[in-house]
Amino acid sequence: MFDVKAVAAGVASRAPFFDEGSGLGRDADVRSRPAHGGLQQGDAPGLYGGTGRQAICDVERLERYLTEPRNDRKARAWAKALRIRTDGIPEYLDRLTPVLLRHDTLVKNHDYKKGRAVPFHALLQAGIAVLVDERGLPAVKCSCGNPLRPFEGDKNRISVTFENGNEKWKGYDRSEVVVVRPAPRKLERISLVDVEDPDRGVERPVGTVGEDDSVFDTRERRAVPPLAGATFGEAGRRLAERGLAVAYAGEGLPPDRARVTASDPAAGVELRFGAYVTLSVAEEGERGSAPGTKPPSPGTESSRVTEGPRSPSSSPSSPSPSSSSPSSPAPSSEPAGSERPEPGAPGGTPATTPPSSGAPADGSGPPPSSTGPAPTPPPPGAGTGTGSPPPVVTGAPPGTTASSPPAGDPVTSTAPPPATGTPVSGAPAPTGPPAGTTTA
Asked: What Å distances lie between residue 273 and 126, 157, 220, 245, 291, CA to CA?
């Protein structure tokens, strides 16, 4: 279990970096909202909130304080906690953006004690004002200036302690606690929801405190874009541009290059700002596929990123078998992960009868006779002259079911990748020669 200290909105820290009585930051009264899956990307539309008032965090005052020579020791501890150089503090602060938490959020907080930044796991209540970095991660708690780092533990194994004036707040629900993961790219602006008027959205350029905000109507409906065939990273960008959030479950994100096979809701469905769209992705082979192998065909394995229901309108031509598999169970905080036997795995039907221990390793000829000279081995790749040739052993293991996407620019096509190479035989690969034989 991870010991976590509760930090309530409006309650002063006992070991702050900055005197909280000076009004460096102002928290707000915000009721925590449920979040799909518990893990959130830093660019998720509506993850953070704002208000019509600009001064929720005085970044200039914090910068002046940390750059004064008399506070040099404190500034060095502050910079070390954030893994930056002390002389880089002004530039770093200029790239941060003030926001309000809309969810009870897990972070690694830091107290200032005896000249050092002392880290501890903390649960920040919704409504606390923070500065977020260019990837959308909480970086500074505004009211006290304490540096923040991402929480790296398991959110399902936390023990929260409410003490030192941080009483359990109304509406606290452990199942609604979130962990923020960095956005896959640097942000140019952050899409906020006005905590005083949820129908009002705020676009805030990164590195500004509110003077350049633009507003929009969060009630305006926006259509889910076509996502099948795109990479996971590209799908997330398309959704964020529409004001929609990626939904997923589990301990982490799939790689950005993972191929999206379906979305729920499907493309074309109109949703309100900040609504979640659940993505399914094709499972990569354990060790990748050799160049020229084709995408997964029916019968190979696919895995969902989330536990949401499968979209009924996913393309029937998708190479992933997810369109024919039963729907996943309802979303929960526990990651999904059942496995099915792969072709060639124990329990499957072998393509051919394994050769005896005296047969050549490639199975290209009969076993030698007990009398007479041994037959001359045939050239590599030659058959026996009767029946079908044995399956060709490729460089990829039988468990490989999907080729690794090519490196380079993200795929933006909504169609699944075309099949290449020679079609694979319908028979599963043999389970391997018996003990004592040598494989060529």
From this structure: 20, 31, 7, 9, 41
Residues 370, 261 contacting (CB under 8 angstroms)? no
Answer whether 191's CB lies under 8 Å from 243's CB: yes
Q: Rounded distance, CA 92 to CA 89, Å?
A: 5
230 Cβ contact partners less than 8 Å away, ≥ 6 residues apart: 238, 259, 260, 410, 411, 412, 413, 414
In angstroms, the CA 260 to CA 236 distance is 10
pTM over 0.70: no
Give the tokens for residue 272. 């309100």
Tokens linked to 6: 């509760």
Q: Do 187 and 48 form a contact (C-beta atoms < 8 A)? A: no
Peptide bond into 265 cis (omega under 30): yes
> With contact defined as beta carbons under 8 Å apart, do 50 and 210 qualify?
yes
8 Å CB contact between 425 and 390: no
User: What is the rounded CA–CA span in Å between residue 421 and residue 294?
Assistant: 6
Structure tokens at 108: 């690694």
Question: Phi and psi dihedrals of 42, rounded to 5?
Answer: -65, -15
Give 51's contacts (C-beta < 8 A, 6+ positions apart): 28, 100, 194, 195, 196
Beta strands of 14-161 (E only): which ranges? 39-41, 48-50, 97-101, 105-113, 116-124, 129-132, 138-141, 149-150, 158-161
Could you give the 3-state DSSP secondary structure of residue 224? coil
Sheet holding 48-50, edge to edge: 138-141, 129-132, 97-101, 48-50, 189-194, 200-205, 214-217
DSSP for residue 436? T
Residue type, 380: P
CA angle 234, 237, 240 (to 5 degrees): 155
Local structure of 129: helix, strand or coil: strand
CB 301: neighbour CB atoms within 10 A? 20
Successive 10-residue mean pLDDT values, the chain, 440 residues: 94 90 86 82 93 81 93 96 96 96 97 95 96 97 96 91 93 91 92 94 93 93 95 91 81 81 93 92 52 36 36 38 38 38 39 40 42 45 42 41 40 40 41 40
CB-based contact 382:369 (threshold 8 Å): no
Residue 56 CA: distances (Å) to CA of 94, 260, 278, 364: 16, 39, 33, 77
Place of tokens 């229901």: 309
